[in-house]
């Protein structure tokens, strides 16, 4: 956290050209400075761990720590494991695969071939039987008026890119 609070605000400026609307936003410009970013990182850790410690003591800290380790490792494993093991249902130039185990554990993010084939899609579970919890959350946010301009691939395009099964 100390390294990230100092280094990230200095190194992530190279990507401002890719998101000019974010780079010119007053809040994001402010939070990208080292002191506010470090404070946000610190509070992001202190509040949950402090609350858990007050409620459940050291057992709560251990449970939260183990949960975070599992969550981060599941997320990180998608970019490596889902390029080696799983199904490749689409005609594509990438090596990403849909991994059923990661698809369920990561609430839909493990449908990695779908993500690489349709990178702008808000939904990764595009094929029958692919649970996508993240998509359910996006739909809920949309119903609440908190998410709009949701991008989904056309169903005809999905069918067109599918590999034919013999």
Number of domains: 2
Percentage of β-strand residues: under 5%
C-alpha Rg (nearest Å): 19 Å
The ordered string of helix (H) and strand (E) elements is HHHHHHHH
Q: Spans of 5+ residues with little confidence (pLDDT < 50)?
A: none
- Estimate percent helicity: 55-70%
Structural class by SSE content: mainly alpha
Biggest sheet details: none
Number of helical regions? 8
Task: Compute the number of strand runs.
Answer: 0
Given the C-alpha coordinates, what overall shape results?
A: globular
Give the rounded overall mean pLDDT: 87
Report how far apart the termini are.
Answer: 51 Å
Structure description:
- This protein has eight helices and no strands.
- With 166 residues, it is mainly α.
- The chain folds into two domains: 2-80, no CATH class; 82-161, no CATH class.
- It is globular and about 55 Å long.
- It starts with a helix and ends in a 5-residue tail after the last helix.
- The relative contact order is 0.07.
- The model has no long low-confidence stretch (mean pLDDT 87).
């Amino acid at each position: 956290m100390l390294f990230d609070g100092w280094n990230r605000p200095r190194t992530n400026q190279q990507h401002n050209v890719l998101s000019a609307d974010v780079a010119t936003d007053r809040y994001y410009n402010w939070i990208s400075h080292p002191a506010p970013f470090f404070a946000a990182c610190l509070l992001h850790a202190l509040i949950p761990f402090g609350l858990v410690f007050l409620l459940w003591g050291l057992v709560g800290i251990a449970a939260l720590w183990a949960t975070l380790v599992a969550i981060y490792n599941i997320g990180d494993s998608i970019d490596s494991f889902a390029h080696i093991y799983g199904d490749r249902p689409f005609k594509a130039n990438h090596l990403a695969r849909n991994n059923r185990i990661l698809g369920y554990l990561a609430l839909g993010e493990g449908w990695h071939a779908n993500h690489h084939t349709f990178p702008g899609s808000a939904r990764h579970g595009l094929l029958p039987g692919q649970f996508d919890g993240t998509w359910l959350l996006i739909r809920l946010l949309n119903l609440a008026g908190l998410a709009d301009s949701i991008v989904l691939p056309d169903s005809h395009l999905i069918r067109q890119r599918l590999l034919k099964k013999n």
